[in-house]
UniProtKB/TrEMBL annotation:
InterPro entries: CsrA (IPR003751), CsrA_sf (IPR036107). NCBIfam families: csrA, PRK01712.1. Transmembrane segments: none annotated. Pfam families: CsrA. One of its GO terms (cellular component) is cytosol. GO terms for molecular function: mRNA 5'-UTR binding. The keyword Mitochondrion does not apply. One of its GO terms (biological process) is mRNA catabolic process. Residues 74-97 are annotated as: Disordered. HAMAP family: CsrA (MF_00167). This is Unannotated protein. Coiled coil: none annotated. Keywords: Cytoplasm, Repressor, RNA-binding, Translation regulation.
């Protein structure tokens, strides 16, 4: 980790596109301003953790849905856990109700 000392009004650059400005220091609190391209996400750590948890849940739900649909269509899973489609001659009635 790089540790820097900056005063109010000073800037830190990250690469060519990101600027971190020290806006205010009050007691143990530092206010920072960020200038970055729109495609760069900037989040507080606790928000980032919530986003990451939601993504992990979405992947798990999607995998469960694929498994359920594969089973409903008569497919099986291979040894690696990936779904195998049902045989072309199989006809499976699927109820989504």
């Amino acid at each position: 980790m790089l540790t820097l000392t900056r005063n109010i009004g000073e800037t830190i650059r990250i690469g060519d596109d990101i600027e971190v400005h020290v806006v205010e220091v009050r007691g143990n609190t530092v206010r920072l301003g960020f200038k970055a391209p729109r495609e760069v996400s900037i989040h507080r750590e606790e928000v980032y953790e919530q986003i990451a948890a939601a993504r992990r849940l979405a992947v798990r739900v999607a995998a469960d849905a694929v498994g359920a649909l594969t089973a409903a269509l008569g497919g099986t899973r291979s040894a690696t856990g990936t779904p195998k489609p049902a045989d072309a001659g199989d006809t499976a009635a699927v109820s989504l109700a």
